[in-house]
Amino acid sequence: MDYKVKDIGLAEQGRKQIEWAELHMPALMEVRKELVAKNSLKGLKISAVLHVTKETAALVRTLKQAGAEVALAGSNPLSTQDDVAAALAKDGIKVFAWKGESEDDYYQNMNIILSYNPDILMDDGGDLHALVHEKHSNLKIIGGTEETTTGVIRLKAMEEDNVLKYPVIAVNNAFTKYLFDNRVGTGQSAIDGIIRSTNVLIAGKVAVVVGYGWVGRGIAIRFRGMGARVIIVEANPLRALEAVMDGFDVMPMVKASKLGEIFVTATGNINAISKEHIQNMKDGAILANAGHFNVEIDVKGLGEIAKNVREIRPYLDEYTLANGRRIYLLAEGRLVNLAAAEGHPSEVMDLSFSNQALCVEYIYNNKEKLQKKVLNVPAEIDEKVAFLKLKGMNIEIEELTKEQKEYMKQWKYGT
């Protein structure tokens, strides 16, 4: 079969979910109309490793309707929405994803979608790009895209090591991606995952946000908006200074670990919360991760220092330490917003996935011209996506006069 999902019988419910997402993704629907009218992607084969959500389904359906053949695998073992995966399979998408995959399943599914000999890769986290370079170097890839910060960092390392075999557009670096998806989307969805899995009150809690990049900023702002007292842990002096100027307390983890009640990691690095930090924590401390991979919290170390582990409710595990304190880990340390909730709202993914669709078309149309590097989203695509989003929100903006446009091009006028 050209699909493997948990239950194909969930397809009808999945279709309803996809319809709901598309209702809230007006920019992507405009992009779809444009690509379909031009049949822009006819004959193109795309293999994608993305979170299999209703929003991703809207993107995949757009690519297919524009003429592409798409094979899809999940980019996280716990992020797939099984009803959506079933709906895509019923609609003829080659989808290999289900919630609760093992690590072996995860990589096997990636190998399967690569067996369709894709022209373009779409990735979220960099695992697909890395797998191609390590084990499928025979594939003739003309280009790819990358959705997230973690993946872009990995691809830049590949570029610096002179091993990158094809151009990759860093969709993550578009203004219409990171300013909204990373900051606004994760800010809301990460806290949504925490609340769904615990139902604790945020107001009055001491929340520790580890990392003050765009994701950390969004989480911290929304924690504060819900009444939490927020501490930032940050290693970069510029970001730490920004957090201070934004009104947050800033300190190292060794101090924050003794004060926090809810901890959220958003660093892209390993062991941002180590077992030594965990041993400092208060009884009842809650640990969640909003970074792409499950390496930011030392889950293995937590297991080593626990004398007992039990599941309290879905995606909420209680670890009782030798000192009697109880630590609560959410979603096995994986992406809390996608494992314990539904990921970003459709409205924000409208921006990211409009970028993805337009960047695929751009790669296809410019395949002979692009260098084998990590490339930014072309400015005209970034601005087009912003314009389409505003249009979909029925918002009008100012238009410069001819005189104003000329003034901005010159250098002679002074005071």
TrEMBL record:
<dbReference type="InterPro" id="IPR000043">
    <property type="entry name" value="Adenosylhomocysteinase-like"/>
</dbReference>
<feature type="binding site">
    <location>
        <position position="344"/>
    </location>
    <ligand>
        <name>NAD(+)</name>
    </ligand>
</feature>
<comment type="function">
    <text>May play a key role in the regulation of the intracellular concentration of adenosylhomocysteine.</text>
</comment>
<feature type="binding site">
    <location>
        <begin position="213"/>
        <end position="218"/>
    </location>
    <ligand>
        <name>NAD(+)</name>
    </ligand>
</feature>
<keyword id="KW-0554">One-carbon metabolism</keyword>
<feature type="binding site">
    <location>
        <begin position="148"/>
        <end position="150"/>
    </location>
    <ligand>
        <name>NAD(+)</name>
    </ligand>
</feature>
<feature type="domain" description="S-adenosyl-L-homocysteine hydrolase NAD binding">
    <location>
        <begin position="182"/>
        <end position="343"/>
    </location>
</feature>
<feature type="binding site">
    <location>
        <begin position="290"/>
        <end position="292"/>
    </location>
    <ligand>
        <name>NAD(+)</name>
    </ligand>
</feature>
<dbReference type="Pfam" id="PF05221">
    <property type="entry name" value="AdoHcyase"/>
</dbReference>
<dbReference type="GO" id="GO:0071269">
    <property type="term" value="P:L-homocysteine biosynthetic process"/>
</dbReference>
<comment type="similarity">
    <text>Belongs to the adenosylhomocysteinase family.</text>
</comment>
<keyword id="KW-0378">Hydrolase</keyword>
<keyword id="KW-0520">NAD</keyword>
<dbReference type="InterPro" id="IPR036291">
    <property type="entry name" value="NAD(P)-bd_dom_sf"/>
</dbReference>
<protein>
    <recommendedName>
        <fullName>Adenosylhomocysteinase</fullName>
        <ecNumber>3.13.2.1</ecNumber>
    </recommendedName>
</protein>
<dbReference type="Pfam" id="PF00670">
    <property type="entry name" value="AdoHcyase_NAD"/>
</dbReference>
<feature type="binding site">
    <location>
        <position position="147"/>
    </location>
    <ligand>
        <name>substrate</name>
    </ligand>
</feature>
<feature type="binding site">
    <location>
        <position position="269"/>
    </location>
    <ligand>
        <name>NAD(+)</name>
    </ligand>
</feature>
<dbReference type="GO" id="GO:0005829">
    <property type="term" value="C:cytosol"/>
</dbReference>
<dbReference type="InterPro" id="IPR015878">
    <property type="entry name" value="Ado_hCys_hydrolase_NAD-bd"/>
</dbReference>
<feature type="binding site">
    <location>
        <position position="234"/>
    </location>
    <ligand>
        <name>NAD(+)</name>
    </ligand>
</feature>
<feature type="binding site">
    <location>
        <begin position="211"/>
        <end position="216"/>
    </location>
    <ligand>
        <name>NAD(+)</name>
    </ligand>
</feature>
<feature type="binding site">
    <location>
        <position position="53"/>
    </location>
    <ligand>
        <name>substrate</name>
    </ligand>
</feature>
<feature type="binding site">
    <location>
        <position position="124"/>
    </location>
    <ligand>
        <name>substrate</name>
    </ligand>
</feature>
<feature type="binding site">
    <location>
        <position position="177"/>
    </location>
    <ligand>
        <name>substrate</name>
    </ligand>
</feature>
<dbReference type="GO" id="GO:0033353">
    <property type="term" value="P:S-adenosylmethionine cycle"/>
</dbReference>
<dbReference type="GO" id="GO:0004013">
    <property type="term" value="F:adenosylhomocysteinase activity"/>
</dbReference>
<keyword id="KW-0963">Cytoplasm</keyword>
<feature type="binding site">
    <location>
        <position position="181"/>
    </location>
    <ligand>
        <name>substrate</name>
    </ligand>
</feature>
<comment type="pathway">
    <text>Amino-acid biosynthesis; L-homocysteine biosynthesis; L-homocysteine from S-adenosyl-L-homocysteine: step 1/1.</text>
</comment>
<dbReference type="InterPro" id="IPR042172">
    <property type="entry name" value="Adenosylhomocyst_ase-like_sf"/>
</dbReference>
<dbReference type="InterPro" id="IPR020082">
    <property type="entry name" value="S-Ado-L-homoCys_hydrolase_CS"/>
</dbReference>
<dbReference type="GO" id="GO:0006730">
    <property type="term" value="P:one-carbon metabolic process"/>
</dbReference>
<feature type="binding site">
    <location>
        <position position="337"/>
    </location>
    <ligand>
        <name>NAD(+)</name>
    </ligand>
</feature>
<feature type="binding site">
    <location>
        <position position="182"/>
    </location>
    <ligand>
        <name>NAD(+)</name>
    </ligand>
</feature>
